């Protein structure tokens, strides 16, 4: 009975579930998104549902970060952007913010070697100057230690807000026009692209948001103009490789017209 229910729910039993390499092989036959962005939501709700402190949700969520980075690398995705800490998150309780600000150095200790072995380049998107010194040091080390790598670009959006990113880009464009570095008639959409944190990277083809919210929350507003949106009720700590592959499979089923008919 349980097996039947499981088969009905997931479509598979243990012995009919496709092997990981078979799924990778099947996915690689279709278009692989060059850039996937993820709003990793639901850590607090996950913890609350289990009567645990919010920090327990964040700790569990870091395991999912590791799993999804590896899945993206295994698929050959060019860029993966993880919305880790928004400019609004500073309003959270002090102890929670202090815990979150230690995650980069934790991740550095546990995952730098694996990321280097996988040829992953780590890049921070956001205002570094507002971070605590110890977090800034961890981010600088991560970026310095992986800057020559040519595999997956792992963008960690930390202290990031899209409107703030766009305002900073506009200020830098105005400064370059005023100093004669650029003529205002040259300013076009590609100019703005070059002044954003994601300069040189393709726009996200797919954005994933976990935990049921259906909104973008000031994330990559410029870059997401033509992105496919994929939402799941599953909270980030429960998100996994299988669901990530499901999102990629759904992306492959969608035809993208970029506004054309
Ligand atoms: C503050 C924060 C929060 C954060 N969360 C997402 C994962 C769930 C836990 C809470 C929120 N994640 N996820 C990855 C990072 C990260 C940042 C920099 C870095 F170099 C390596 C990893 C991260 N940092």
UniProtKB/TrEMBL annotation:
<keyword id="KW-0808">Transferase</keyword>
<feature type="binding site">
    <location>
        <begin position="86"/>
        <end position="88"/>
    </location>
    <ligand>
        <name>substrate</name>
    </ligand>
</feature>
<feature type="binding site">
    <location>
        <position position="209"/>
    </location>
    <ligand>
        <name>substrate</name>
    </ligand>
</feature>
<feature type="binding site">
    <location>
        <begin position="42"/>
        <end position="45"/>
    </location>
    <ligand>
        <name>substrate</name>
    </ligand>
</feature>
<dbReference type="GO" id="GO:0016740">
    <property type="term" value="F:transferase activity"/>
</dbReference>
<feature type="binding site">
    <location>
        <position position="46"/>
    </location>
    <ligand>
        <name>substrate</name>
    </ligand>
</feature>
<feature type="binding site">
    <location>
        <begin position="215"/>
        <end position="217"/>
    </location>
    <ligand>
        <name>substrate</name>
    </ligand>
</feature>
<feature type="binding site">
    <location>
        <position position="58"/>
    </location>
    <ligand>
        <name>substrate</name>
    </ligand>
</feature>
<feature type="binding site">
    <location>
        <position position="54"/>
    </location>
    <ligand>
        <name>substrate</name>
    </ligand>
</feature>
<feature type="binding site">
    <location>
        <position position="90"/>
    </location>
    <ligand>
        <name>substrate</name>
    </ligand>
</feature>
<keyword id="KW-0479">Metal-binding</keyword>
<dbReference type="InterPro" id="IPR001441">
    <property type="entry name" value="UPP_synth-like"/>
</dbReference>
<feature type="binding site">
    <location>
        <position position="41"/>
    </location>
    <ligand>
        <name>Mg(2+)</name>
    </ligand>
</feature>
<feature type="active site" description="Proton acceptor">
    <location>
        <position position="89"/>
    </location>
</feature>
<comment type="similarity">
    <text>Belongs to the UPP synthase family.</text>
</comment>
<dbReference type="Pfam" id="PF01255">
    <property type="entry name" value="Prenyltransf"/>
</dbReference>
<dbReference type="InterPro" id="IPR036424">
    <property type="entry name" value="UPP_synth-like_sf"/>
</dbReference>
<feature type="binding site">
    <location>
        <position position="228"/>
    </location>
    <ligand>
        <name>Mg(2+)</name>
    </ligand>
</feature>
<keyword id="KW-0460">Magnesium</keyword>
<feature type="binding site">
    <location>
        <position position="92"/>
    </location>
    <ligand>
        <name>substrate</name>
    </ligand>
</feature>
<dbReference type="GO" id="GO:0004497">
    <property type="term" value="F:monooxygenase activity"/>
</dbReference>
<protein>
    <recommendedName>
        <fullName>Isoprenyl transferase</fullName>
        <ecNumber>2.5.1.-</ecNumber>
    </recommendedName>
</protein>
<comment type="function">
    <text>Catalyzes the condensation of isopentenyl diphosphate (IPP) with allylic pyrophosphates generating different type of terpenoids.</text>
</comment>
<keyword id="KW-0560">Oxidoreductase</keyword>
<dbReference type="InterPro" id="IPR018520">
    <property type="entry name" value="UPP_synth-like_CS"/>
</dbReference>
<keyword id="KW-0503">Monooxygenase</keyword>
<feature type="active site">
    <location>
        <position position="41"/>
    </location>
</feature>
<comment type="subunit">
    <text>Homodimer.</text>
</comment>
């Amino acid at each position: 009975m349980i097996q039947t229910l499981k088969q009905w729910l997931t479509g598979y039993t243990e012995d009919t579930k496709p092997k990981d390499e078979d799924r990778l092989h099947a996915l690689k036959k279709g278009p692989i998104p060059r850039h996937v962005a993820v709003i990793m939501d639901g850590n607090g709700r996950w913890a609350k549902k289990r009567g645990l402190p919010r920090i327990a949700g964040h700790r569990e969520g870091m395991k999912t970060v590791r799993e999804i980075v590896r899945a993206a690398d295994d698929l050959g995705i060019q860029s993966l952007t993880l919305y880790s800490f928004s400019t609004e998150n500073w309003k959270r309780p002090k102890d929670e913010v202090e815990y979150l600000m230690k995650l980069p150095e934790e991740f550095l200790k546990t995952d730098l070697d694996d990321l280097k072995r996988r040829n992953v380049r780590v890049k921070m998107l956001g205002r570094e100057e507002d971070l605590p010194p110890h977090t800034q040091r961890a981010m600088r080390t991560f970026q310095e230690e992986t800057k020559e790598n040519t595999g997956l670009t792992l963008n960690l959006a930390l202290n990031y807000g899209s409107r703030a990113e766009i305002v900073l880009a506009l200020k830098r464009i105005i400064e370059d026009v005023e100093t004669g570095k650029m003529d205002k008639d040259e300013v076009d959409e590609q100019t703005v692209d070059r002044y954003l944190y994601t300069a040189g990277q393709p726009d996200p083809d797919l954005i994933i948001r976990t935990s049921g919210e259906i909104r973008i929350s000031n994330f990559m507003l410029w870059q997401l103009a033509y992105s496919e949106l994929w939402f799941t009720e599953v909270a980030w700590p429960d998100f996994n490789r299988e669901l990530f592959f499901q999102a990629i499979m759904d992306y492959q089923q969608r035809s993208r017209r970029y506004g054309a008919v």
